[in-house]
Amino acid sequence: MRNHSDKPVYILGIESSCDDTSASVADRTTMLSNIVAGQSVHARYGGVVPELASRAHQQNIIPVVDVAIKEAGISRKEISAVAFTRGPGLLGSLLVGTSFAKGFALAAGIPLIEVNHLQAHVMALFIQEKNIQRPVPRFPFLCLLVSGGNSQIILVRDYLEMEVVGQTIDDAAGEAFDKCAKVMGLPYPGGPFIDKLAAEGDADRFRFARPSIPGLDYSFSGLKTSFLYFLRDELKGNPDFIEQNKADLAASLQKTIVEVLMNKLVRASKELKIKEIAVAGGVSANSGLRTALRNEAEKRRWNLYVPDIAYTMDNAAMIAVTGYFKYLRGEFAGQDVVPFARTQF
Ligand code: KG4
Known about the structure:
Number of helices: 9
Helix content: 40-55%
Bound molecules: 5'-O-[(R)-(carboxyoxy)(hydroxy)phosphoryl]adenosine
């Protein structure tokens, strides 16, 4: 599965699974542009409002694609294929990207490629920049995929050959960050705020429930409840408890989530005898998780691969790169393809 010629293959990637409208142009695995338009409209609601998200995607998609192609320095006619996020995600949001990609492919007479958003998060590890050659993981490797909607340990056998060996049975790690942050009165999404506050706090000050789930699976709903009940009890005696202990609460919560994630990852590495370890998804931006990964890598002689922060969040660069590998295999979608909301790995 190789492109033997040096001829460029330009893939236009489209991502619209949640509240970011993104378009990117890649030449094979090299990123030429990656434009992301966020949606501030959700901030006042403390979470993403699906109806508002799809409306904002409709407004953003044409200018975002236009800028992505211009920034890549190519003409529309040079694009070889268009790849789009088919799912999982919000159906209304996915529909905007899917319809746009279909129309673009049809008008340009080029192949249409459907991409699984979760696979794409893992494939972000193969993104290259024009003047920087990044080291990429060797197969087989294990990838800890941690985002707002998923927490999974994935065994990656080849570019598009992936098997989920462990996953959350309830909430995702990102959800645990965001929901606990909401209880503390922090803005949405709360993960980055917890991360920032944690840097100044004492991580051993408070202790929250750690789940005991068999095998390589995760659970975060118990932690969320334990955090909620703990705060409710403390607030009864001191209404300013959260304000006075913000940093210690954030640091203790972050330490707990990171420990839970790392325990199962270490176990998976031992059981499957794999020392090529990677991380992907929005929560992989977390500084506590990155430090824990680096420490374990040193201790256990892992080869560790951490994507650039820009490619950990939802972005179309990862969709374009995944699309390129599907393009090499000739895996194209028909005009009758429809989005899916839930995980289909
Ligand atoms: O991958 P992503 O952008 O979207 C999904 O596909 O879900 O992940 C978003 C999640 C949110 O839950 C957000 O709070 C979390 O990633 N996140 C973080 C950090 N940056 C983003 N969580 C903890 N620490 C961070 N620095």
